[in-house]
Design a protein that fits this description.
The chain has helices at residues 40-47, 65-73, 91-101, 106-119, 135-146, 165-180, 192-198, 216-223, 238-245, 266-275, 290-298; strands at residues 2-11, 14-24, 29-33, 55-60, 76-79, 153-157, 184-189, 201-206, 209-214, 227-232, 251-255, 258-263, 282-287. With 304 residues, the chain is an alpha/beta fold. Its main location: membrane.
Length: 304
């Protein structure tokens, strides 16, 4: 579905994408995970055939975006990071008129509009103004609009940014159903839980480069431990206390507000911390996540 070799993109002197290789297979959910500024959105714009390739080779659906841009865009669905809904139109017409842009006949586009409103649970809002919708409803409408042309490939750039937890889970369910129906998804996100929930495979990007690739489970197994013990001490104490616990796990990371001790038994780490007379203000044992992978690979957290 997507094949990129040595893909690059520059803006003046700044190189946003520094020669990456990517292959996306039919029917999978593929993710680009990384912080803001990692090069995810620049890569997505090239894949969407709306930004020219700066270097390397890129094929989308077997076609070259430099020469087959319109044909590629006709077979893509794109959910941008920012909602681009038409506030002058009601919910129904946002789908209907967008569908007509693709040359879909009126009867078919009406049928698809009704089906998509049902799919995203907005049938009762069909005649409502866009400005009256909640943030979650707007994102669902944007995704519905991106599906109006029955795309072979759906691109989602930070699909749940700004949504509350309940709205995020509703959206995850809809994206999971799309994947089950055979739609190929390409998702950019800086939410590690989102990537773990949705992606079959992903790449971790940092500063325009791919620093790791694999399934969420493969990446966690390769770059982290089974559990993490989080220790919170007083403000400004973590750097000095790191040396006192560094032998309790495979490695220790010092964050501004806590120490992370990586081991295969977090409860044992906590017990040994107390045996040494240390009294954290708070402790937490959790499983490793993709954020721990990113911290290991880049030395910073996803929200830095």
């Amino acid at each position: 579905m997507i094949s990129a070799v040595g893909l690059r993109k520059s803006f003046g002197e700044f190189e946003a994408v520094k020669g990456i290789d990517v292959d996306v297979r039919r029917g999978e959910a593929f993710g680009f995970l990384g912080p803001n500024g990692a090069g995810k959105s620049s890569t997505m714009r090239m894949i969407a055939a709306v930004s020219p390739v700066g270097g390397g080779e890129l094929r989308i659906l077997g076609m070259d975006p430099a020469t087959d841009g319109p044909a590629i865009r006709g077979r893509l669905g794109v959910c941008p990071q920012e909602d681009t809904l038409d506030n002058e139109l009601n919910v129904y017409d946002n789908l209907y008129i967008y569908g007509r842009y693709f040359g879909i006949d009126k009867a078919t586009v009406r049928e698809r509009t009704d089906e998509l409103l049902t799919f995203v649970s907005l049938t009762e809002k069909a005649k409502s103004k866009v400005e009256d919708l909640s943030g979650g409803m707007k994102r669902r409408l944007t995704i519905a609009r991106s599906l109006i042309n029955q795309p072979d490939l759906l691109l989602l750039d930070e699909p749940t940014t700004g949504l509350d937890p309940q709205a995020r889970h509703v959206l995850w369910d809809q994206l999971f159903r799309l994947k089950q129906a055979g739609v190929t998804l390409v998702i950019t996100t800086h939410y590690m839980d989102e990537a773990e929930q949705l992606c079959d495979r992903l790449v971790v990007m940092d500063k325009g480069l791919i620093v790791a690739e694999g399934s969420p489970r493969e990446l966690i197994d390769a770059h982290s431990t089974r559990e993490v013990a989080e220790l919170r001490f007083g403000v400004g104490e973590h750097e000095a206390l790191a040396a006192k616990v560094e032998d309790l796990g495979d490695r220790v990371e010092v964050l501004p507000d806590r120490l992370l001790v990586y081991s295969h038994d977090g409860e044992e780490v906590i017990a040994k911390v107390h045996e040494r007379g240390l009294q954290p203000a708070a402790v937490l044992v959790r499983r490793s996540t993709l954020e721990d992978v990113f911290l290991r690979l880049t030395g910073r957290t996803l929200v830095d």
